[in-house]
Design brief:
The chain has 243 residues and is of the alpha+beta class. It has 2 domains: 132 residues, Jelly Rolls (Sandwich); 72 residues, Arc Repressor Mutant, subunit A (Orthogonal Bundle), CATH 1.10.10. It is built from 10 helices and 10 strands. The strands form 3 sheets. It has a 4-stranded antiparallel β-sheet. Strands 1-7-3 form a 3-stranded antiparallel β-sheet. Strand 9 and strand 10 form a beta hairpin.
């Protein structure tokens, strides 16, 4: 009596890791990188790299948010862009440079997948799907910086604050996130009393709740209405280029 070996069960869809770039990779490419990826927990203000210092690792956030900031001679900081689960921190490595003239540090705590810079260079050398994704992501990040610069000149502090909160809300897994008024003031380039006033306006309108450094988004549609067109333009570019 002959027997037939059982057919192996088909593998199901790959479980998402929570980062848009990594989750967009074909399984073969992701599996090649997977042994090199290390999950790390990032606390508020953890520095990922300093200006003009070698970048040893790249980070793929899964539920944290990282700020890229310019530091002035007087020590003041101005935010250039934010990176969350849609992107990668350490893009200069992809662009064949080892340093950047700005600081990257954790804005909202959480986890990221860390990859040694040498491992990324090896993968880039293959010229596969990750290279195409990072080219698109580089354009997305440039668009974010450009729109943010225009927004800072053209729109009110309330609109800018609403845009910033929406972008942060998009990148966390829950409806709330940690954020001090001091930090938000630094990121928006204004003094803390002005941020306190604007946050109070948004809270009085029922759009957010802001208690002890924790923001809860209560009315997402209302917050979008309070923002400017820059938020939608930035988000549309992410969806167009990374989908």
């Amino acid at each position: 009596m002959s027997t037939t070996a059982p057919t192996p069960a088909a593998e199901g869809p790959r479980k998402p890791v929570g980062n848009r770039l990594l989750d967009s990779l074909p399984s073969e490419d992701y599996e090649r990188l997977r042994p090199e990826l290390e999950t790390v927990s990032l606390s508020p203000k953890d520095v990922i790299y300093e200006p003009n210092r070698p970048i040893p690792h790249v980070h793929f956030p899964t539920n944290c948010i990282v700020s890229l900031v310019a530091i002035m001679d007087d020590g003041s900081m101005y935010e250039l862009a934010t990176v969350g689960k849609e992107g990668m921190v350490g893009l200069p490595i992809f662009q064949e440079t080892e340093t950047a003239p700005f600081r990257a540090f954790t804005q909202v705590p959480g986890e990221a997948l860390r990859l040694d810079a040498a491992a990324l260079r090896d993968e880039i050398g293959r010229g596969g799907p990750l290279v195409r994704l990072l080219h698109r992501y580089a354009q997305v990040l440039f668009n974010q910086v450009a729109w943010s610069a225009a927004c800072n000149r053209a729109h009110s502090l309330e609109q800018r604050c609403a845009r910033w909160l929406l972008m942060s809300h998009d990148r966390v897994s829950t409806g709330q996130f940690l954020l001090t008024q001091e930090f938000l003031a630094q990121m928006l380039g204004v003094h803390r009393p002005r941020v306190n006033k604007v946050a109070g306006v948004l809270q009085k309108a029922g759009l957010i709740r802001y208690v002890r450094g924790r923001v809860t988004v209560l009315d997402r549609a209302g917050l979008e209405a309070a923002s400017c067109e820059c938020y939608r333009s930035i988000k549309d570019e992410y969806d167009r280029l990374l989908d």
